[in-house]
């Protein structure tokens, strides 16, 4: 990697003992100001943002003062996913940026190996999901039903399910009857909830005339005849809706996957190039 104009010698040629440090400084500047530097810095900053948002959300829900709330929840807390993404992005950004700044081959090798691992994990998940579609469908059903049970236990999970049902115009995993799994919407005689035999408002067919969302539109809906359900709520399950959505948007999904893969390959290439350049500088081969 040739030095930029800012890195070239000005005036007298440095002594042999100073040339190594000068070359390393040049390499360091190139690694930060070049194509890979902003990418690594942005990755680290994005990780900090995700971590900040996740910790703020946990603070608002009182989880930071009582971490056992996470383990007591039967469904998944979306904040956990945000924090996991933040930790991974911050770790990779830190390893890549500091590794380039300090010419630390260990950190750069860690960065490169982690990106390679993530790339092959994504590829493996995509291939396995295609080959074992029935197994994936069953696991997703179990996952969705588990979160239906915890619908009222966490506001973030509740918002996530509502967004999924509204966006896909669906209700439950395979239909509105799945909401019997939730203690508040269960139709059994033992339930005294006002939402008994109902569904969340996100299952309701929107009324164009209403400008304010009616959060009680799903009350007592399932006490009616099934033939009348489709007049007021979505009767298609979300698993069926997602299975129908994927073929219609296969090119978008493939494009996103290819774009992410190319970015990862580009990051691997930059890391390996930088490692080679650092090793060349340390070996005394000047640019």
UniProtKB/TrEMBL annotation:
Annotated Pfam families: Tetraspanin
GO cellular component: plasma membrane
Membrane topology classification: Multi-pass membrane protein
UniProt keyword list: Cell membrane, Disulfide bond, Glycoprotein, Membrane, Transmembrane, Transmembrane helix
Disulfide bonds: 170-203, 171-187
SUPFAM superfamilies: Tetraspanin
Domain of life, per lineage: Eukaryota
Regions crossing the membrane: 79-101, 107-132, 250-271
UniProt subcellular location: Cell membrane; Membrane
Entry's family note: Belongs to the tetraspanin (TM4SF) family.
Protein name, UniProt field: Tetraspanin
Organism whose genome encodes this protein: Eschrichtius robustus (California gray whale)
